[in-house]
Write a structure and sequence with these properties.
This protein is α/β, with parallel strands linked by helices. The chain has a domain of about 160 residues: Bacterial extracellular solute-binding protein, family 7 (D-Maltodextrin-Binding Protein, domain 2, 3-Layer(aba) Sandwich), CATH 3.40.190. Strand 6, helix 6 and strand 7 form a beta-alpha-beta unit. Helix 2 runs antiparallel to helix 11 and helix 6 packs across helix 12.
Length: about 375
């Protein structure tokens, strides 16, 4: 073959390769179209909880490389906060961000992922039970029994929630009797058992109701959210520590058909984004809640530890509540039994192994603390 023929042959081969590459790239480009999912949170736009929802969405969007985009709207943009589950299941929304206890009215067992002392488990241990001790399968079973076609993720272990905001400090159990009090989930039953008149208002309605005297006291969640909602403008006493919601987490919901239509690699990105967002949320909560705790003190808020007598009364009221619910709802009992078995083993390990961090804190910062150089 001559040099001219050889060059012509090479040019032909290159042209053929370019045509072939173009043919192959066309379907690849088509498959890279963006899938946009419209989410709604159950939180006001400025709340730190809505920020957590945006944080999760950003992780998915960044990792998906343009193939998947989650857009998050604040509470009430499409449906009221307590209607999120139905809206996601029906496809009115593609997904949502909230707490599973908000669906308590549909099946009381769902509140066990947020309300109550969880047999002594902290929120991270409840997540451990959920992911490794059988909780995830139980949620799926409950949603299936409700004909809810959703895919659910639990993440983000919340710090222990205060007993709440009061016009005057609560000193004894009797102070709760007849008190018009806001809470949600199984905590409604617990405080009702303790004699309070409970109103499960959504987050955005609490402070106005407290200001107008429609309720006497209320709990929401944490120093950052409570400060932003305006609690210090209508009440100056906050009771810290409570068992009513000491192990809660956030819930991310996807519409079942929309989720199943995603390719495996995008579903894997969602899985890992949940885990990453869970870790970041718990770190951010420490940073922001501690800052806002100090800011609330500067606003004149007085903080008190909830008396042990009230905490013990909560546990007694909880025992009565779960006995009643377990008798009414077999799935409730099934969740309780699963939690209890996990908590007995994991709690023993944690309590035996964990050092008393308060001892070290008091050594450095408490009264009579050791002087540091």
């Amino acid at each position: 073959m001559s040099n001219t023929q050889s060059a012509t042959s090479r040019r032909g081969m290159l042209k053929g390769a370019v045509v072939a590459a173009g043919a192959l790239s066309a379907p690849m480009i088509a498959s890279a179209q963006t899938t946009t999912l419209r989410f709604q949170s159950t939180w006001p736009a400025k709340d730190i909880f809505h920020e957590y929802a945006l944080d999760f969405a950003k992780k998915v969007n960044d990792m998906a490389g343009g193939r998947l985009k989650i857009e998050v709207l604040p509470s009430g943009s499409v449906v009221p906060a307590f209607q999120l589950l139905d809206a996601v299941s029906k496809g009115t929304l593609d997904g949502g961000h909230g707490v599973i206890a908000y669906h308590y009215g549909k099946n009381s067992a769902l509140a066990l992922w947020g309300s109550g002392p969880a047999f002594g488990m902290d929120p991270n241990m409840v997540l451990a039970w959920h992911n490794f001790g059988g909780g995830k399968a139980l949620v799926e079973e409950i949603y299936k029994s409700m004909n809810m076609d959703v895919v659910n993720y639990l993440y983000g272990p919340m710090p222990t929630q205060p007993l709440g905001w009061f016009k005057k400090p609560i000193a004894k159990v009797e102070d709760l009797k007849g008190l018009k009090y806001r809470t949600v989930g199984l905590a409604v039953d617990v405080f009702t058992e303790m004699g309070a008149a409970v109103n499960p208002l959504p987050g955005g309605e609490i402070v106005p109701a407290l200001d107008r005297g429609l309720i006497d006291a209320a709990e929401f969640n944490n120093a950052s959210s409570d400060r932003l909602l305006g609690f210090p403008d209508v009440a100056k006493n906050c009771m810290l520590q409570s068992f009513h919601q000491s192990g809660e987490q956030f819930e991310i919901l996807f519409n079942g058909p929309k989720y199943r239509a995603l390719p495996d690699e995008l579903r894997a990105i969602i899985d890992y984004a949940v885990q990453a967002a869970s870790a970041e949320m718990s770190w951010k909560a420490i940073e922001r809640n501690s800052q806002d705790y100090e800011a609330l003190k500067k606003q004149g808020v007085k903080f008190y530890k909830t008396p042990d007598a009230i905490l013990r009364a909560q546990l007694a009221a909880w025992d009565k509540t779960i006995a009643k619910k377990a008798a009414e709802n077999p799935l409730f009992k099934k969740v309780l039994d699963s939690q209890k078995a996990f908590a007995q083993r994991a709690g023993q390990w944690q309590n035996d192994y964990t050092v008393d961090f308060k001892m070290a804190y008091n050594h450095y910062f408490g009264k009579g603390a050791a002087k540091q150089g």
